[in-house]
Structures are given as C-alpha cells and as structure tokens.
Amino acid sequence: MQQLKFERIPRATISRLAVYVQELEVMEQQGIKVISSEKLAQLCGVNPSQIRKDLAYFGEFGVRGVGYYVHELREAIRQSLGLDRTWNVVLVGVGNLGRALLRHNLLRKRGFVIVAAFDCDPFKIGEEIAGLEVNCTSKLPKSTRDMNVEIGVITTPPERAQRAANYLMEGGIKGIVNFAPSRITTPENISVEYVDFIHHMFSVAFNITQNQSKGLL
Amino acid sequence: MQQLKFERIPRATISRLAVYVQELEVMEQQGIKVISSEKLAQLCGVNPSQIRKDLAYFGEFGVRGVGYYVHELREAIRQSLGLDRTWNVVLVGVGNLGRALLRHNLLRKRGFVIVAAFDCDPFKIGEEIAGLEVNCTSKLPKSTRDMNVEIGVITTPPERAQRAANYLMEGGIKGIVNFAPSRITTPENISVEYVDFIHHMFSVAFNITQNQSKGLL
C-alpha cells in the first residue's frame, strides 16, 4: 500500500472518497478517460478544492490544465481505501434488512463477500438465502476463524446487537458495521461503523421543519 | 417550535441528537428518570462536553449536580428535530431494500409513515407488501399531492434514482432520503440525505487496513 502522508484521515474524507470511487467507476464504464476537477466535483456534489484537499492525503493527483485520469485515480483511491482486494464478511441477524443485504449484489461487486449468515431463531436456522444457509449464532466464532473473516455485519434487533458483537469479536473479527439502532461497546482496535437510516430520516425531517420556519417552503 | 439559538446546526450535531433521542427512549422504557451527563455520554459513545455543546443549540438543559431529566430532554430534542408529529412518506423502488424498509417497524415507531410504494416494473405493480399495494411510478406525483406527502425515500437502482427524484419533486415532496448509490440533483430548498452503507463498509475496510499497517491487529 501507498505510504500515507498523514496518519489520521478525517471520517468525512473517507466518506467522500467512497463517493469519488463510485462516480469514477461510472465514468470508466462510460469510456471516459480524463475528467476536469470541476466536472468531477459537480458530479460528486462537492467543490473542486475539497476534492484536491481530500486527495492530498494520498499523494499527488491531477494534471494542471488536464484534470484527473479516471482509471489511475480510481485505482489509487481503491488502493488507499483497501478495496483492491476482497473482504470476507459474515452477517448476524436474518430479518428483513439482513435478507436484503444477503441478496444485494452491490456488496460483492465492491469486494465484500458475505460468506456466512447467522441467526439464533430456530425457525430461520437451515433456511437458504442467496445461496447461503443460515447457521446458529453459537457456531459463529469457530466459523469466522475457519473462514478467515475480517468484517462482521450486525442486522439484529437493537437489544441483541451487543451479543452479536461479542460473538464476532470472539471469532476474531477486526471491524463491524452495525445496522442495529443501538450503540455497541468494543475495544479500541475494533473498527465500528453505524448505519442508521433513521438518523437520515431525522435529518430530513429537521431540515424540512427549518426550511418551513424560514419560509423557504 | 422552540426558537433556535443558531440558524445553522452542524450535520454531525443532528446525527448525534438522533443517537441521544434513541438512548433516552431506551432509558425511559426502563423507568430511568434522571441521568448524569457522564452516563449519557458513555451510552451514546461521545464525551460529556460534546453533549453539552450539541444541546446548547436548542436551549438550556441539565441541572448541575443532577444531570438531565430523561423525559424532558427527550421531548425537547424530539421537538427540535421535528419529531413531535408524524411524517407521510412514499417509497420508490420495491427491490430487496425497498421491501425491507416497507416491512421495517422502526420507521412508523419513529413517526415516519410510508403511505404509498411505487415501482415501474409491471411484475411488481399490484403486489401487496406490508399492507401497501405497489403502484406504477407514473401515478406518484398525483398520489403524493393527494396524500400530503413531504418525504420521499428512493430505493431504486442507481441509474433510476434521478428519475425517481424528479417524480418526487413533481409531487411536491420537500425532502428525499436516497438509498440508491448515486448522487441526485435537486433545487436547494429540497433536503437530500444519502444512506450509502457501502461507504461504511469502505470505512471499516480502510480502518482495518490502517490498523494492520500500524501493527495494531
């Protein structure tokens, strides 16, 4: 991996890099070879100086008067983010959201391969979803170690999220993406991300309320 | 609504307020009446001064030597966020994720009521999911106006997200939560939130890669 110029990359930068990769990928599919920083910024919904600042963490990109080479930039960001490889993932909690993720083709396309699914509900154990058999959660620690899994996805109800996290850590997982609407406690070397779409609903509700009170709507 | 002390509340604050509301709700269910700022901070995964700063946007909270009154604080945040009412929501794109959201009970519990679901796939139109009949997307603008809908949720494939957004805006929607992994263009008075779980997968992958290169794993 490329040596990073700074140790600490802001979370917001990582998030924007993910958007850049996505948009660069679409461009590559469309056969676009070079893009101006203005155009890339516009497509990603940020300003050009933000892109330059974000990319500066990873090295020198862009050619004055030309812009960015689409393929090179995409590869460089992918490498920086650790996306130039595949990641084995397990999922805990086979409810509506868990099923949707198991059937989602974008995860695999982005290098995240769900290799096992777990649930503690006896009615779900043994069921096959998207080619995977649901296993009893008690088997999780051994399975994840055997399959060299690094990332765990939690889609349990909120009250079971911590237990799921404990199983995952027992299984040697290094990072967790928690879709359950509750906080979990982990040691510092475990990377945890929360995906809580209700927060985004809240934000929109808040912004509409604000816009209405300002007479903008 | 309470008068806000500042016009512009940082996004990160809104996001944390959503966490505070969630945790306060759990406490209220457990019969907890008062909580210290340290304990609340710990449960929410932030530090106490952050909570004080976030709440300062909305008024004076907390009693020295006592902490926060759980019910009062929860109500005040709910009111500030515009959550002391229900919001009519429509969903566009009845794929795996759309189905999961239609069946998700948390949305309604939080005041977001999905009143209609749309898809352009003739095989899906007429299907009933969670008590709602899937309608043809061309009917969306009239339906949303008739039902006084303010928020639209997009769960289409990425290439159809902009079209879905156009239909929603034609229907007079004021805010959009976009789950499709592509940017959409809207006028400034439309509030747009992106829910892209792939970004969170990216962040975890990046952090694991970083931790490994630092020898922490």
UniProtKB/TrEMBL annotation, chains A, B:
Binding site for NAD(+): G93, V94, G95, N96, L97, G98
Listed GO biological process terms: negative regulation of DNA-templated transcription; response to redox state
Residue stretches making up the CoA-binding domain: 82-183
InterPro entries: CoA-bd (IPR003781), NAD(P)-bd_dom_sf (IPR036291), Rex_actinobacterial-type (IPR058236), Rex_DNA-bd_C_dom (IPR009718), Tscrpt_rep_Rex (IPR022876), WH-like_DNA-bd_sf (IPR036388), WH_DNA-bd_sf (IPR036390)
Main subcellular location: cytoplasm
Location(s) in or outside the cell: Cytoplasm
DNA-binding region: 19-58
The keyword Transcription is assigned to this record: yes
The entry's keywords: Cytoplasm, DNA-binding, NAD, Repressor, Transcription, Transcription regulation
Keyword Transcription recorded: yes
SUPFAM superfamilies tied to this protein: NAD(P)-binding Rossmann-fold domains, Winged helix' DNA-binding domain
Summary of the function given for this chain in its UniProt record: Modulates transcription in response to changes in cellular NADH/NAD(+) redox state.
Quaternary structure and interacting proteins, as annotated: Homodimer.
PANTHER family: REDOX-SENSING TRANSCRIPTIONAL REPRESSOR REX, REDOX-SENSING TRANSCRIPTIONAL REPRESSOR REX 1
Family: Belongs to the transcriptional regulatory Rex family.
Name of the protein: Redox-sensing transcriptional repressor Rex
Upper taxonomic lineage: Bacteria, Pseudomonadati, Thermodesulfobacteriota, Desulfovibrionia, Desulfovibrionales
